């Protein structure tokens, strides 16, 4: 697990209580969203289960003995969902997908990469995108499959690629 | 049967022999007992039962106080009812504490029967019901010479009944309740008499305290400056010379108006001392302490405080969102409170209501309100944890890094 550089807020006890004062709360939620994105990015993690998350070091600072409650996590994630940075996977809003880049950003990033590498009009498998040698060092390398597909679908909507099914694998053709 | 007690066959003071009968058997309710073929002596107070010859000798016999008896009836003898009634049923009240030991500790029945072998003697029955009706044990015992049933025994000091006030039956209960009422009434009267006297004394007390203060002023050399100051402050917090009372006003609104004026006069100094704000409960205590004996009710105080703005008082009643009511100096504004509190926060690092209450010398409730006010103005942020609620300087808004 990669080391995360914790922001100063992480060691500030009130950070773990959702603030009632509107302005303060906005600042606080902003800080949390940044921290969540940084943390998940460094862990190459895109989904989060609220029920388990409250035990992860992200929401549980043992050094100051503070813990963010599941309700508070939900508040933050719902706020993230408003700006398209997260989406609930199940109806009970326990499992969430977190996009440290928005889906559009992901799509553009992959498209640019494909352009640069001259992969236009060729088909490559999703496996190649995630695990292939060409994409090593790219941000989307090792990206969660579901997120990847969603990003490519958003790209497909713009007519920049086409998703296709093989026998047991999925591929994508960039235009 | 448990109402009987063992006792020497002797008459008490004021007790009179009435009647006797022979061949009497006692039933405990419907059950036969070992007490058969005995002799019964009826007195004005008791029924005595003994083996033949025991009672005249003054030996130990069974005794039943007539105050236990609240109802007497005759039971017709035999199935066919000839030969006249043979038994008397005595319905008894509950055994009273302080009773001497008797032949039975407990009994299932609340009645006993006296069975007369030769049939109930109408004269005996009449004497018994008369004695019960007369309730001679309730009248004060007269000093009569000691009557002794037996001529053989020498006179002995009489034994007074264990509890001469014991009564039975509904009438007895009613009477004792009545007596209790009377006693309470009396004690209330006495208490109020004391209070009125105290009220009269209150005026004197005020003049005495004035005297003392003037004497202190004269003798300032003898008493240290410190003492004088302290004593004066005691007096200050003590005295309203002429408390506003409801009696003096025709309408409630006049009364509240004047009360409000008085409160504002006396509370200004106190509020300044306490940092400009005081919970209404504390105000109530202070006001009543100053008034001495003409106390005001919390409701009157509240009503008066609501009028403080109307009388242009330098303070006003304020209700916090949490519902806490306080009296607040008008100069004591939220912004200033928040500012001073946040300065304190910067200094100390973090504050709980308790901590602030100690530092700022206010009640915990008010300290809490202060912190909430500071938070509302964005100068503090909260930290809720298992350790409780604490407040920190609002670094979210300050640290723009």
Automatic annotation (TrEMBL), chain A:
It holds the Pfam family ESCRT-II. InterPro entries: ESCRT-II_cplx_Vps25-sub, ESCRT-II_cplx_Vps25-sub_N, WH-like_DNA-bd_sf, WH_DNA-bd_sf. It comes from the Eukaryota. Keywords: Cytoplasm, Protein transport, Transport. The keyword Cytoplasm applies. Its main location: cytoplasm. One of its GO terms (cellular component) is ESCRT II complex. GO terms for biological process: macroautophagy; protein transport to vacuole involved in ubiquitin-dependent protein catabolic process via the multivesicular body sorting pathway. Coiled coil: none annotated. It is found in: Cytoplasm. The keyword Transport applies. One of its GO terms (molecular function) is structural molecule activity. Belongs to the VPS25 family. This is Vacuolar protein-sorting-associated protein 25. It comes from Pararge aegeria aegeria.
TrEMBL record, chain B:
One of its GO terms (cellular component) is ESCRT II complex. Keywords: Cytoplasm, Endosome, Protein transport, Transport. It is found in: Cytoplasm; Endosome. Pfam families: EAP30, Vps36_ESCRT-II. InterPro entries: GLUE_dom, PH-like_dom_sf, Snf8/Vps36, Vps36, WH-like_DNA-bd_sf, WH_DNA-bd_sf. One of its GO terms (molecular function) is phosphatidylinositol-3-phosphate binding. Residues 1-144 form the GLUE N-terminal domain. It comes from the Eukaryota. One of its GO terms (biological process) is protein transport to vacuole involved in ubiquitin-dependent protein catabolic process via the multivesicular body sorting pathway. Belongs to the VPS36 family. Component of the endosomal sorting complex required for transport II (ESCRT-II). Component of the ESCRT-II complex (endosomal sorting complex required for transport II), which is required for multivesicular body (MVB) formation and sorting of endosomal cargo proteins into MVBs. This is Vacuolar protein-sorting-associated protein 36. It comes from Pararge aegeria aegeria. The gene is jg9055.
């Amino acid at each position: 697990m990669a080391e995360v550089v914790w922001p100063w807020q992480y060691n500030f006890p009130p950070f773990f209580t959702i603030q009632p004062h509107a302005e303060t709360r906005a600042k606080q939620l902003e800080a949390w969203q940044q921290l969540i994105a940084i943390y998940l990015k460094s862990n190459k993690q895109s989904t989060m289960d609220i029920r388990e998350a409250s035990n992860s070091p992200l929401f549980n600072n043992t050094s100051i003995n503070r813990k963010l409650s599941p309700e508070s996590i939900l508040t933050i994630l719902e706020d993230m969902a408003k700006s398209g940075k997260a989406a609930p996977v199940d109806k009970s809003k326990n499992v969430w997908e977190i996009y440290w880049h928005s889906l559009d950003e992901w799509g553009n990033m992959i498209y640019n990469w494909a352009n640069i590498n001259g992969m236009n009009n060729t088909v490559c498998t999703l496996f190649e995108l995630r695990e292939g040698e060409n994409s090593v060092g790219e941000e989307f390398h090792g990206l969660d499959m579901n997120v990847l597909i969603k990003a490519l679908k958003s790209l497909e909507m713009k007519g920049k690629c086409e998703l296709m099914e093989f026998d047991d694998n999925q591929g994508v053709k960039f235009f | 049967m448990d109402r009987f007690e063992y006792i020497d066959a002797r008459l008490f003071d004021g007790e009179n022999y009435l009647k006797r009968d022979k061949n009497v058997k006692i039933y405990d309710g419907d059950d036969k007992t070992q007490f058969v073929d005995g002799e019964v002596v009826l007195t004005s107070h008791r029924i005595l039962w003994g083996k033949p010859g025991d009672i005249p000798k003054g030996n130990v016999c069974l005794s039943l106080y007539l105050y236990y008896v609240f109802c007497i009836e005759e039971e017709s003898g035999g199935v066919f009812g000839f030969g006249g009634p043979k038994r008397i049923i005595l319905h008894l009240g509950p055994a009273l504490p302080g009773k001497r030991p008797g032949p039975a500790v407990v009994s299932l029945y609340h009645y006993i029967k006296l069975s007369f072998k030769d049939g109930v003697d109408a004269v005996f029955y009449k004497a018994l019901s008369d004695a019960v009706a007369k309730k001679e044990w309730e009248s004060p015992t007269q000093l009569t010479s000691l009557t002794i049933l037996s001529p053989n025994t020498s006179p002995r000091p009489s034994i007074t009944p264990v509890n001469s006030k014991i009564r039975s039956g509904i009438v007895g209960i009613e009477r004792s309740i009545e007596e209790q009422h009377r006693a309470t009434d009396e004690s209330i009267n006495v208490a109020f008499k004391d209070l009125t006297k105290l009220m009269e004394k209150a005026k004197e007390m005020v003049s005495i305290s004035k005297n003392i203060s003037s004497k202190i002023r004269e003798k300032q050399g003898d008493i240290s400056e410190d003492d004088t100051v302290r004593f004066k402050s005691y007096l200050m917090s003590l005295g309203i010379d002429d408390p506003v009372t409801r009696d003096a006003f025709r309408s409630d609104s006049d009364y509240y108006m004047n009360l409000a004026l008085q409160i504002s006069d006396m509370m200004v100094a106190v509020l300044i001392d306490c940092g400009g704000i005081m919970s209404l409960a504390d105000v109530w205590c202070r006001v009543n302490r100053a008034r001495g004996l003409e106390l005001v009710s919390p409701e009157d105080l509240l009503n008066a405080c609501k009028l403080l703005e109307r009388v242009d008082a330098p303070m006003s009643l304020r209700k916090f969102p949490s519902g806490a009511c306080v009296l607040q100096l008008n100069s004591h504004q939220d912004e200033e409170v928040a500012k001073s509190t946040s300065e304190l926060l910067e200094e100390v690092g973090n504050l709980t209501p308790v901590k602030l209450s100690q530092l700022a010398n206010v009640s915990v409730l008010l300290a809490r309100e202060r912190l909430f006010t500071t938070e509302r103005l964005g100068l503090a942020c909260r930290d809720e944890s298992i350790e409780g609620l604490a407040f920190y300087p609002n670094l979210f808004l300050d640290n723009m890094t």
